[in-house]
Amino acid sequence: MLTREEDIDAHALRRQGWTISAIARHLGRDRKTIRAYLAGDRVAGERKPAEDDRFDPFVDYVRERLREDPHLWAVTLFDEVTGLGYDRSYPTFTRQIRTRGLRPHCEPCSATKGRPAAVIEHPAGEETQWDWVELPDPPASWGWGKNAHLLVGALAHSGRWRGTLAAAEDQAQLIDALDKTTRKLGGLTKKWRFDRMTTVCRPESGKVTATFAEPTHPADLVADSVSNSFWAAPTTKGEATLVFTFDRAVNIDKAIIQNGDNDKFDQSFRVERLHLVYSNGKTEDLQLKDQPDPQELTLQNGHNITSVEMHVMATYQSLHGTDVAISEIELFQRS
Prior knowledge:
There is one protein chain. The chain contains 7 helices and 12 strands. It is an alpha+beta fold and 335 residues long. The longest helix is centred in the middle third of the chain and has 15 residues.
């Protein structure tokens, strides 16, 4: 049985041109199962009539073999049980090992969490690292509105840093802040490294579509850089999905999402959970708060992609309407 997320992933990858065999390998499922869900013969979350568990007769054998050698290759073990009469697929076999916890824990193979990290030496005068820091709610006396911007320059060798406040992050402000901060640091280094994230999805560099949208609130309004417009979709017609398509391969590391209708927040449904399916086959879930303020979310799997589908999996409901709304989605990658 496929979960709802797996069913979404299978259909999304099929739309991107993946073969049934590739999808089956990616999800660790049998080809016949994937074909049945894609054809509509089976429904996510509904289990087929029960039948005998074909793996049960081999559990003790597999457990004992893995106890003898925790590093035994699964493909070798699969060949052994196949010779003993096991007639299911390799992905089904490996899934049974995982779900039943048959492979013993091996400490040396565990993640290196908590172990010392490598320290990279930076010679004096070698490198300056630059980054913009956004400062919300600056003093009203500054006259800069809701946000001020601080350009920070840090010397990689000593860790010494200096910064310059700016009203915006446009080119003129950047040049002025670079000059002032460089003078505060005492001069130039050999290299500059910019870690500032840059927006990758704009109307001029890609497109945004949706499975459903209200006529006056189309999908492209979610990426127009204006928070008083929004995408809205009926929740009564089916699963609302946004699709971001880029004109080049990008590496997305961060998203800033403004939930709901910013002007009338409680008048529409808001997104509680998004399921992301990337063109590289990877997926992840984003949990959103029920608030009108922008939410910054780290993305782990959006590397070397040309598109991403965002499926609305759960919503915060409204007493005043049935449309789900998102004011703004910005996707970022490192320069």
